[in-house]
Amino acid sequence: MADILKDGLLFCQCCTLAAVNGDSCDCPGDHDGQVTRGLGRLTTSWRGYIVAAFDEGEGVHEFSSSQCDCCLSRLAGSRHEFAIIG
What we know:
By secondary structure, this protein is of the alpha+beta class. The chain has helices at residues 13-21, 31-46; strands at residues 4-11, 49-52, 60-64, 77-85. Strands 1, 2, 3 and 4 form a four-stranded antiparallel sheet that branches. The longest helix has 16 residues, at 31-46.
């Protein structure tokens, strides 16, 4: 059984797509690079695996401009809860 190393992480839509599906975003500038670096930073810092901590709408915040815990941007949009397990 895996241990929860960190929970309550809130990811923006781009980071959610990258973490769940490996997709890139269509945002301007180097946001794709920020997403990639953020995912790497989190998995390296916590030495674990990023997993979605939401199911059918629960753990999804419909609109926010709070800082994404992955890419550290404040792009407005939905936020989705994630955890790191090890």
